Amino acid sequence: MIEVGSFVIMGDWDDTPTPPGKLRIIVPPLGHLEGGGWSPFTQAALLALPAEIKKNKSFAEIGAGSGILCVAARLLGAGHVIATELDKDALAYLPKIFAANGMTDYEIIDGTFPTTGVDLAVCSISTEFGQKHAPNVDAKRILNVNDVRHGGEVIVIK
Amino acid sequence: MKRQQRWTPDTCANPATNDACIFIEEWDDAVDVYSRTHDFVMAEKLCSHHAAIHGNDHAAAFKANYDENRRKNKTCTVAIALRPDLTPMQVFEAFTWSFDAQRNLTVSFGNLFNAQQKAQLQDALDIQFGQGMVTMP
Prior knowledge:
The structure holds two protein chains of two kinds. By secondary structure, chain A is α/β, with parallel strands linked by helices.
């Protein structure tokens, strides 16, 4: 179990009860995918999301990787969830983690950006990528997770 | 442009005694370094472990080697992330690993992790790779 702020990240084999007051993210084995709950990027974003997610508002993660942030957004009450990704292994994995967490209203895009406007977009690829490309995303609010050494840092771009 | 190179994994049966696989692999340098894949071309030989498991299926042996090597490398990446108070080099230098004949990966970081940190690391590795895919004594 990995505990990050409001969340616990647990393997899909783990039948340990969810600690009181925590939201449980169920994770099938990731293999070589990025975005495991141990990474500073993911942890920084998980800590920022509770204050950012608005009930039933749409959410997109650019470069979703494991999809953990999409699951977290849904658990916090987000409406339509969009995951964009280029990596073929991640594209094959995303339906598995969404299914493991009982998600049905989602969209996986084999590409870089959402094709429709969203309320909140999170980009956790790299500092440079986020600063260069995230402003072009059609979103009311955009967060970029910077790769600060020894820990992620969430920057509001819009 | 397609490039080829000879690859001898450091995760085979016993590279120190040349009991290691040797592959020719190929990649496309037009693809950015984060997205490119290394593909099997041929095997010059297999180590005793991979030969016993994969026989003449050299492509399967290559894929197994590729996965095992990445698992070993990512294990160190996870450990580095969980000890931000240390430099990556400190963690890397303490890192040792071995694969048994069934290709189970056992790792050690010497005395760098106390019992609680070790439990956290094991949890993170289980979530990353699945239970029992990486073990620490």
